[in-house]
Amino acid sequence: MRIRQSNEGLSGIISEQAEDLIKKIFQLALAASLILFVYLMYGLFSGDLADVAGKPDAAKHALAVVAQISNYLNLALVITLVTSILLYYDESVYGFSLLGIAAFLAYGLQFSIDLLFASEAPRLTSGAASKSLLHEVWLMAMMIGAPGIIMVVRSMFVRILEGRQGEDLTAVQYGKGVAREDDVPKAAIPILAKCWQLPFCRAGIRKNCPIFLAKTRCWKERVGCMCEENIIMLAMGGTEAQTPVNMTKEMGFVAIGDILAKNNEDKRASIQTRPGPHGVRIPVNPHITHEQQKYRCNNCIIYNEHQRLKYSFFSVPVTLCVPVVVFWQFDAVRALLTTVLQGIDKLVAHLSISGNGGVSLDLSRQIAGSLPIETILIICLVLVLMTWAQRLLEYCIFTIKI
Ligand code: SF4
Ligand code: SF4
Fold first, then answer.
1. 227-257: per-residue pLDDT in tens?
2. pLDDT at 51
3. Which one of 42, 63, 216, 383 has the fewest CB atoms closer than 10 angstroms to its CB?
C-alpha cells in the first residue's frame, strides 16, 4: 500500500532515465549482496570455516577471506539499501521488511543453527573465522535495521498526515465534489465542531437551516443538507451546478429544504417535524430506517470530515501511548519478553526434529541477559505495536465509524 498522497513516486522527483539507472544499480547490488552472503553461509554451514581450527595457515587464510568478502558485502549492502530506499520509501511494507530481515539476521540465524544442527552448532560457530562471519552478520542486521526503524517511523508519520489531510481514507457518496468553504463559524475545539462549523456547510443554506438554527448537528438528527441537497436547491431556486445525489422518494428523503422555499407552502405544510433543541422544529422522516440513516451519514462528506477531526485529535496520543507505556513499565516489559523467549524455547525444544532443541536456550539466555539486545528487540516490538495501534484507530474511525 502506498502511504503518500501523490502517486508520482520517485519519477515525480527525478527523471525516468535516472530512476531506471537506480533500479539497475539496485538489482546489481542486491544480486552481489546475495551471492556474497550465500558464499559466507556456505563456508559456515559446510563446516569449511570450522575445519581450519588447529591449522594456523589455513585459519589465517580463512579469516582473511571472510574479512575481504565482508568488506565487499558491506559495500554492496550499502548500495542496495540506498537505492532501495530511493525506490521504495513510499511503500508502507518496506520498513517492516527491513526490520524483519534485520531481526532474522540478528537472532534468527543463530537460532536456526542451534535448532537445525543441534550438537554440531558449537563446532560450526567456534573459531576466529566463524566468529568473524557471525560478527559480520550482526553488523548487517544493524545496517538493515537502522533504516528499517526510520522507514517505519516515517510511514507512521505519513499515515497520520494522510488521515488528517488526504483524500484516500474517506471515500464518500453524499456531498462528493462539494467545495470547501472558508466562511464558516469556527469551533473552539475542532473535535467538538458541529456540522455548521465544518467547511462543507454552505452559507446560503445555513442561514435558514433548522439544524443551524437549533444549534445541533445534522448527524445527530440524521437529517441534513447533503442527503437533501437537490431538494434544497430546488426549493431555493438555486442554479448552482452541483453533482446530483442519487436519491429517490422510496429511499425516504425528506425535503428539509422545503422549509426554505417561500413559494411552496403546501409542500412545507406536509413535512413532518418534531420539536428540536431551542424550540426549532426538525424534519423527521418516517420512511427510512435508523440503519439507512446511519448508512447515509457514514458515506457523507460532512460526517467524514467530523471523523477526520476525530482522527486528528486521537492519532498522535494513541500512537504515542505505546512507547509511553513501555517506557513507564520497562522492567515489566523486559520480564514479559524473557517469559515469551523462554516459552518459545520450550516450544522449540518440544518441536525440535533433532530432539535437542534445548540448545536454543543459549540464545534466549544471551538475549535476555543483555540490556542493549533487549532494548533493540523492545524498540522493534514497540514500532510494530505503534503501527497496530494506528491501524486500529483508522479502522475504528474510518471503517466502522465509531
Ligand atoms: S445541515 Fe448542512 S446547511 Fe445545515 S447546518 Fe448542517 S452543514 Fe450547515
Ligand atoms: S448524511 Fe448525515 S452527515 Fe450528511 S448531511 Fe445528512 S445527516 Fe448530515
1. 865 435 434 544 343 333 444 444 444 445 4
2. 81
3. 42
The number of the ligand nearest the C-alpha atom of 292 reads: 2
Distance 389 CA to ligand 2 centre (A): 29
- Is the CB–ligand 1 distance for residue 209 below 6 Å? yes
How far is 245 from 309, CA to CA, in rounded Å? 24
Angle among Cα 309, 383, 100 to the nearest 5 degrees reads 135
DSSP string for residues in 150-171: HHHHHHHHHHHHHHHH-STT--
- pLDDT of the residue at 246: 42
Mutate to test the pocket of ligand 1, among 212, 221, 236, 293 (most ligand atoms within 8 A of CB): 212
Q: How far does residue 218's CA lie from ligand 1's centre (Å)?
A: 7
When the pLDDT of each residue in the chain is averaged and rounded to a whole number, the result is 80
In this predicted structure, what is the pLDDT of residue 207?
81
Q: What CA–CA distance (Å, rounded) separates 309 from 188?
A: 13
- Ligand 2 contact via 223 beta carbon (within 6 Å): yes
Residues 6+ apart with CB under 8 A from 356: 118, 119
Candidate of 195, 233, 247 to mutate for ligand 2, largest count of ligand atoms within 8 Å of Cβ: 195
Does residue 357 register a pLDDT over 60? no
* pLDDT tier, 46 (very low <50, low <70, confident <90, very high otherwise): confident
The rounded Å distance from CA 396 to ligand 1 centre is 25
Report the nearest-CA residue for atom 3 of ligand 1: 206
pLDDT bin (cut points 50, 70, 90) of residue 362 is low
Kindly report the pTM of this predicted structure: 0.71
Nearest CA to ligand 1 atom 2: 225
**Ligand 1 centre and the CA of 314: distance in Å?**
25
Q: What is the DSSP string of 81-148?
A: HHHHHHHHTTBHHHHHHHHHHHHIIIIIHHHHHHHHHGGGHHHHT-SHHHHHHHHHHHHHHHHHHHHH
DSSP state string for 25-67 = HHHHHHHHHHHHHHHHHHHHHTSHHHHTTT-HHHHHHHHHHHH
Task: Please indicate whether residue 367, judged by its CB atom, sits closer than 6 Å to ligand 1.
Answer: no
Q: What is the pLDDT of residues 67-102, one digit of tens each?
A: 999 999 999 999 999 999 999 888 878 999 999 999
Ligand nearest to the CA of 209: 1
Which grid cell sits at 290? 435508523
